[in-house]
Amino acid sequence: MPSAAGMLAGLVLAPLLLGVTNRVKAWFAGRHGQPLLQPYRDIARLMRKGAVYSPTTTWVFRAGPLVSVAAGIVALVLLPLGGSRALMTFSGDFMLLFYLLGTARFFVVLAALDTGSAFEGMGASREVAFSALAEPALLLAMAALVRATGTRSLSGAMGKVWSDVWVPSMPVAVLVASALAVVLLAENARIPFDDPNTHLELTMIHEVMVLDHSGPDFGLVLYGSALKGWIFAGLLAGVLVPVRTGNPWLDGAVTVAGIFAVAVGVGVVESSMARLRLIRVPQLLVGAGVMAALAVLLVR
Amino acid sequence: MGWEIDPILVALVLVNLLLLGASRLASCVRLVAVQGVLLGVLALLVQVGWSPWRAVLLAGGSVLLKGIVFPRLLWKALRGAEIRREMEPYVGYTLSVLLGLGMLGLTVWVGGRLRLPVPAASHLLVPVALFTMLTGLFLIIARKKAITQVLGYLVLENGIVTFGIALSHEAPLSVELGVLLDVFVAVLVMGIIIHNIREDFDHIDADRLVSLKD
To answer: Hey, are the CB atoms on B97 and A169 less than 8 Å from each other?
Structure first.
């Protein structure tokens, strides 16, 4: 029952994260900012519209947004909220979770390439290059958790984060959390890596891939990236907020609060930092990978 | 014992990796200073149980020399030499960091098999000491400027001091203070040499010294 509620929370609250981040940024800039529920309104508005398809595109272009949302929803089934177990959990489920995210990205990239636009091809190339560097960091961070807790499922590892990671070796937990935070910013195209506000700039990565999507397709793209944000924030909050009372409702609620705290943190980072030069981005991602690898080495 | 010094040891490792990835001379000087201060804190935490006075003396000396005096000296040498602010590596920064990770793996493996005469304060202490030494050696080999070789030497020495801390209550105080003094003289002399190289050749690129003939 609590696991189902956790998944439902992800499905319903994911776009709200975007709203929270935007409100924090507006607060820092001294503006009033858009309403908290604006992402929901955007998605609802897009869903009512018609879509325009270029004659050069094929079914791949239409499949992109659908697959990314579908993969996101299936990934939510596997995502535990802190001590609250996921709806489905088995040995090695984190590999499935990461590769579901990989499948989503693969189809978004294919859809971008399918348009035949040189601009989107450039964005796709960057997305793939950076995620190739972010993925080892994510896997190594997970490997450190798995090695420290001695369990091979995501729910099992997250349930023991306090007793098996924070208490015996605090540096490991801090390193894993830092690596996850960097990967979160990179994968969700947030500021040190990509500026979500730019729409026609040669340096952007994620936005450039979805320029040709319109109407319901673009709505699905927005919802898919919101789900992706929720999943990464959920992983990070699971490590950063190691409250494990044993009561799944309480643990889940605390972790959801942690997820929103992560969204606030993203807003703060975005308001206080400039975007990195493109040449620096791989270095930061390699740095995240190195921190995660260090965490793996530190686990006894 | 282990859990309170582990964060400092991990910080030392991170400083080493940052040193391998840093592209500006000034930030490298700052990182080496941070490393010196961390070493002072480490010495204090490890040794305060055995003899508080000695620990405070060593930690204070380490922080004063490595955290304040050396960076000042290097900073002066840097400004006096009027050189470009980049590191000019032979091996790229990202590759250096990855090689550093490889070295770390190696030292963890070696550290696990090494039999120490006395038990170390933490299972990480020996690998971190070896890794710091290797980082220093790598900086000496893989960067072009004479001043980066001074930095590499300092990092190498930091590694040796870390190793000494692992076995600290075995070595007499006079030896450790003597080492500190030696390093001080070495950095002073190297600063003067850098100045003289710069006076004679208008640059301090060590790779161009190969073409020297007598």
So the answer is: no
**Stated pTM of the model:** 0.88
Supply the mean pLDDT for chain B.
Answer: 81
Closest Cα partner for B176 from B70, B64, B60, B58?
Answer: B58
Give A277 to chain B, closest Cα distance, Å.
Answer: 14
The residue of chain B with its CA nearest to that of A286 is: B94
Contact A111, A65 (CB under 8 A): yes
Please, is A203 exposed, middle or buried when counting C-beta atoms within 10 Å of its C-beta (0-12, 13-18, 19+)?
middle
Q: Where are the domains of chain B?
A: 2-202
**ipTM for this model:** 0.80
Contacts of A150 (CB under 8 A, 6+ apart): A164
pLDDT band at A244 (very low <50, low <70, confident <90, very high): confident
Bin A30: left if φ > 0, else alpha if -120 < ψ < 50, else beta.
left
Coil/strand/helix, residue B145: strand
Q: What DSSP designation does B76 have?
A: H
* 8 A C-beta contact, residue A112 and residue A225: no
Measured CA angle at A266 (ends A78, A296), to 5 deg: 55
Distance (Å) from the C-alpha of residue B23 to the closest C-alpha of chain A?
11
Q: Between helices B173-201 and B146-166, what is the axis angle to 10°?
A: 170
3-state secondary structure of A167: coil
C-alpha count within 13 angstroms, C-beta hemisphere, residue A102:
15
* pLDDT tens digits along B95-137: 898 899 999 999 989 988 887 777 776 778 889 999 999 999 9
Q: Tokens standing for A59? A: 């079914």
Task: Give the confidence band of B1 by pLDDT, cuts at 50, 70, 90.
Answer: very low
Q: What is the pLDDT of residue A202?
A: 64
Distance CA A57, CA A65 (A): 14
What are B145's strand-pairing partners? Answer: B205
In this complex, is the C-beta atom of A185 within 8 Å of any C-beta atom belonging to chain B? no
